UniProtKB/TrEMBL annotation:
Source organism of the structure: Micromonospora pisi
GO terms, biological process: amino acid activation for nonribosomal peptide biosynthetic process; lipid biosynthetic process; secondary metabolite biosynthetic process
Protein name: Phenyloxazoline synthase MbtB
The keyword Transcription belongs to this UniProt entry's keyword annotation: no
Compositionally biased tracts (Low complexity): 1185-1200, 1306-1317
GO cellular component terms, A-Z: cytoplasm
Keyword match DNA damage: no
Database matches in Gene3D superfamilies: 3.30.300.30, 3.40.50.980, ACP-like (1.10.1200.10), Chloramphenicol acetyltransferase-like domain (3.30.559.10), Luciferase, Domain 3 (2.30.38.10), Nonribosomal peptide synthetase, condensation domain (3.30.559.30)
Organism ancestry: Bacteria, Bacillati, Actinomycetota, Actinomycetes, Micromonosporales
Superkingdom per UniProt: Bacteria
Amino acid sequence: MNLPLNPEAALDDVLDCIAEVLGTDPGLIDTETPLTALGLESFTAVRLRRRIRERTGHDLPLTAFLDNATALDLARQLSRFVEPTSDPSSTSTQPDDSLVFALTPIQESYLVGREAGLVLGGVATFYYYEYDRITDDAVADLDRLEVAWNRLVSHHSMLRMVADHRGRGRVLPSVGPYRIGVTDLRDASPAKVDEELAALRHDRSHQVRPAGQWPLFDLHAAFLPEGRTRLYVGVDVLVTDMAGWMLLMRQWGQLVADPAASLPVPPADFTDLLRGRAADPEWAERRVRDQAYWATRVAELPPAPRLPVTRAADSTEPPRFVRHAGGLETGAWRELRARCGEHGVTPTAALLAAFAVILSRWGAGDQVCLNTTLFDRPESPEGIDLVVGDFTTTALVGTPRCDPSSWSGFAGYAADLNRRFWEDLDHRSVSGVEVLRQLDRTAGPPPYPVVFTSGVGLAGDKAEAPASWLGEEVFGVSQTPQVLLDHIVWDEAGALRIAWDGVVGAFPEGYLRDMLDAYLRLLHRLTEAAAWKDPTLGWDPFVLPTETLDVEPFPDAGPLLHDPVTIAAHRVPEHPALYAGSGTTSHGRLAENVAATAGALGAAGVGAGDLVAVACEKGPAQIAAVLAVNAVGAGYLPVEPSWPDARVAAICARAGVRHALVGRGVRTAWPEGVTPHRLTAVGRPSARPEVSASPPTTPPRPQPDAGSTAYVIFTSGSTGHPKGVEIQHRAARTTIDDIVDRFGVHAGDRVLALSALSFDLSVFDIYGVLGAGGALILPDPARQRDPQHWLELADRHGITIWNTAPALLEMLVEYAEIEPEAAGKALRTLRLVMLSGDWIPLTLPDRLRRLAPQARVMSLGGATEASIWSITYPVGEVDLQWRSIPYGRALRAQSFHILDPNGAPCPVGEPGELFIGGDGLASGYVGDPEQTAQRFATHPVLGERLYRTGDLGRWRQDGNIEFLGRVDRQVKVRGHRIELGEIEATLSRHPGLRQCVVAAVPGPDERPRLVAYVVPKAGQPTPPIAELTETLRERLPDYMVPNRFLVLESLPVTPNGKIDHAALPNPYRTVDDSSDDDIQPSPPPATPPVRTPLSSASNGPDWVGPAITEAAALGLEIGLVVHPGRLSPSQALVASARWLERVHLGTGAYAANFVERIPVDGVIELVPRSPNPVPTAGTPPTRQPAAVAEPAVTAPEPSAQKPADGGVTKGARPTDPSVTEAVIAVLSDLTGEPVHPDSTFAALGATSLTLVLSHRRLHEGIAPRLALADMFGHATVASLAAHITSLTPNQGPRTHEPLDNSTQPSTRRSSRLAARTRAQEVDR
């Protein structure tokens, strides 16, 4: 046992070791500076630990280097160190032959994973790159490359490695000279060059080179025009790891540059190092310790990342990989490393933590287990970095819980993960592959198909990339079997390179690229010191900052909402401002009208802080009135002339209204205390204001500022009382300024002003368009909802902007499609279409573009409480798979958050409630502090005031929000929560429908029923109900299919152009025969179960019993599987137990013959007992081997059914004895154990590699129809032999030639995916 060291001596030793590892002077090291700040990271920490152990005899845990540990901290630990004791036992597994060696666990898993027939198999672990070189003489240059490479083959023994038929590594003592293949395209046409290069890449990038044949690398060259050479370089990772790859590229370049150069001799071969490690007692001791560690740790591992995998889970189609690349430039990478040093986190751990954060925010789970690839190169002997070999190992790392709603920031999270990562790294002598071997697949964690590979630090301080001498890197990719995504990161020439190699078609289109972009943005944010402790980091899964509104579309205007309109009157006084009827009002004339009315209001004592009701029909008077109210510093409150007097009275009382501007013909009865002021048609006072004989006694009103109220719009309230949304000038200008700048609104623009004044789309029409010097086209009040009138106005005045709810545009398009040529002429000037306030039908944008192809279609959204709009999306090509038009992203100076019921941010794809923040928020609800407090609140983490919209949405992978409807449009029907918008979006896909809406209405029993209201396309017959039902059932479950379909000529709309849901008829209140639904896809609610025996009627027809008996007699098996149906898992289990009780009570003689089983895809399965069961040949039941790799691989379906007990099915052909002998011979050779027909594979110690090698021999020898999956579907030799016999044509027993155990595997080559595989083997 080593004794503790003297503190001073310990410090000297530590300083010397640090200096040696970091390449610096011991005297320059500050003993209290954190090691990470000195440049220590995970790889150098391993080296430092080794140096300290060699110098002092003490083995510090890697965790001793965490938490900003200093040299002084390490010295203190050494001074009180007590060496642990253990009693390791070790036996070498290395063969005696010096040229033959046992593969490492990771190499063995690579070998297994490349086999075809496995899930995500059929690929090798293959590094592949392409480089473009320009030389004067391509042929001579290739000769130099070839000569230099052959010298490398002679120099490094692992370049001569193959895997023999026993699954062992073998180094060939000598090989013939390697010739680089050539494709000469120097005289080819550009098209031919592109075609050939694409074919070369397709074939060479995904090679599965025969493991038993040399070489396990591939070099090829394509001679191209203009002196270019495309060089293809691929290496099977059975040969080398990333560090070895870098070494080979550097040494190859040295030999090309100087053919006479001598390479340094490696201190040992890879095979020697493996033997030394296997015989090392210290290594054996470590493995004993680490095995105990992982035996406990594995139970704590979280599940694999839950990613939206689109590839079939059981697919055995060999995958292809695609690379998504990114990185950090030199400066950013330097800053990120500096931040890591400040927080005592290694760069590798920081990158891993950032990856885990992004995975979590993209819906993979709060805690995930990642498969991390480690490069476990020994620290001795000296010069170990000159050895080529695959020193790769793996470790399963469980990430801490990522919860942005409760964390203190990235710094704390990264420190926690850093500690966990290093603790797991400290027990890496037992690899992740070996850990998975010990797991029971039925009870252990799920597979881990997401890999994190870090080569940070491997390149050292080299100024250039290892392969930069080869030329420009034009392509690169790697493959790994049983892996869906490999995150690879390494530093190179001072910069950081990142490659995400993922399976093609395994994820939604663009998913990996979008997620990688978010990851890169997070890394850039982490170069900033403040980001590490920012609790809001990562709330936006895309790490996109709130855009600032740093534009001035009205440079000469003040901050008030009406200031741009005032300035426009001075700038363009003669330009038209209003077109109404046959008259035109210029900006100058409008300003005069506004001034006149403002004077009257001022004379009446109206000023800042007041609210003035405006009740006018759509026309010049309405526009002048609202501008006049703002001009005196007051805020306007729209009152529609059609509103009931009681509503007007309630609104005026709530808002404290004392004055109203009233247009001609408006007959509203104003409550007591409200003084109406009548206006002329142009918006001037209809009577001269009375002049007071004495000056006013009230003090002068303060001038309004940006925080003053600009307008109040009342919306419907859930309590039954309307709510007055109070908008300040600065809030409204936030939206107006953004939109005017974003869409370039200018003095030449014309907008058809269809929106009611009480609908806040009118705010943009008035203040945005007029503020830019443009004009409003006001429809005749009597024809306000006449699309023919709209087209006439568009043709006459040249409309450039459309701004309404979608229903109004759809009315226009419906009418315009009758005469598309005339409509196209009328809409020839239309450049911008802004749609908001309701769902946009998926077909509407393209229908409009057929009429006005030049029009730009924009979706906008938000809430009245956030100043008109807060989000936008440019509607380009509409994807037929969309449920709806995307909602978009927030406008500048505004923000959108999707939160769960606890106020935490929802990840990508998960629905939540939409909250709006930013400078556009209303001050609240006028006169209603309780409602204001409920809907507006400051978020405790974000520190931002948010408005709770009551809308549902979720993040799309492209960074936009998908609108899912209102929270209050979520209904519950027969126990199912249903979003009506989802049904509508699906139904609207039917080509025969123009419009549709779905509602939940009370049925005849007062329980909610789904009803669909449909409007057929003009001139087309109404689609049959069955056809509509089928359209829904193709995409939705039965409980979401409406019970009734009502055909309407059009859907009712509100004055604002939105669907009027309250006006939809209830068919159950108007149809006499309401007891039977038109369509009843869903059963009535279930009654509580009664615990009585099943009657004969409920047992089914009387043929069931005899049919079961006859099936059993024929050797068939009939199983009855019970599924959860509409029940939750817990409810299904309870219900199944009750049902089983009734079954056993009611099945009489059959009851004792039922066997209960747990099925793969149900709750319970009942199977009649076999009348003549076949006994097993004396062997205990064993778990069947499964072809799994890390991540665990699902064994494919076998080629035929096998008896579960490993015997022969009754009535089957007798087993061919020669087949049994052949199987025994193969297994005896591979396992070295005596094999008998009743031997189980588990008892023989057969691993998945053993079964793969056995399959090769049997397939090539006696069983060409044998599938790899069949090897894993049989537990015994007898069962497998019987199955092979059944695959052979029935020609009677015959003699087979004995199998040649030296036969090498097939040389069959195919384009397969390659990559690092983590093969899980069955328990022995």
